[in-house]
Known about the structure:
Elements: E1 2-3, E2 15-25, E3 34-44, E4 48-52, H1 59-67, E5 74-79, E6 82-83, H2 89-98, E7 99-102, H3 116-124, H4 135-144, H5 161-173, E8 179-183, H6 191-208, E9 211-216, H7 219-225, E10 228-233, E11 236-242, H8 252-259, H9 267-270, H10 273-280
Amino acid sequence: MTTSTPTSTGTVDQPILSVTGLSASYGFGRRAPLVLDDVSLTLGKGRTMGVVGESGSGKSTLAKVIIGTLGASAGTVEVGGVDVGRAKSAQRQALRRSVQMIPQDPYASLDPRMTIGRTLREALAPKGGRESTYRDRIVELLELVSLDASAVNRYPHEFSGGMRQRVAIARAIAVQPTLLIADEVTSALDASIQFEVLGLLDRLQKELGFGCVFITHNLGVAARMCDDITVMRYGKVVEQGPISLLAAPADPYTRLLVGSVPDPDGRFLTDPSAYDSVIAG
Length: 281
């Protein structure tokens, strides 16, 4: 593995996420193939770590282990200094609030039988409560993601894909998490809508200060969104460091990924602002 040390203050000294020697598999027994193999990464407060690689590289499996829906066979995941695998009941409840995930598919992630207001109320108070009690906070969340208060009484099928993803983001930030996992959050959206959603996430992170693990197969998106990057292949980390490594990757696999970016001048990777102008135009 090729590793560069991130240079920004806080990335190593005060991590909100620390993954160390993480391995995981689907299935049981010695013959169960490893999907993650000795993965380590560190994320500082308010920063975004891009996790990139082809399909099957282990990116989404890493997300599942971080949020606790899949157990690790080796290694540790710590969020805010708490070991996810050894957390006691009260700690697990706190972790469920402090770590939130924005899913890939805005069409499948919202219950079609529930209004947007009820969806957000359940995020705020999973054990129940009147929607009217949380009305002000629900409207505030909608405004944060640039949706009108009238969305409270509407259903998911009344919204476009981009608007549904805004609702999913509102649901994720409802409990003021310290860490967001964004798993291919723009892959199901049209190009112009991708631009809007990425801009929204960027603004919210600046306003709210959460850290973000940003999982994507698109290096152009990673260059636009991320401070640091972890490149994965077959469940292993092959290269890691500040996002600037994409301009001069050391590992042959990373060079291959960079070479596949559909921009002959490589502008997305050397000047991430070029992504904005191209996708907007």
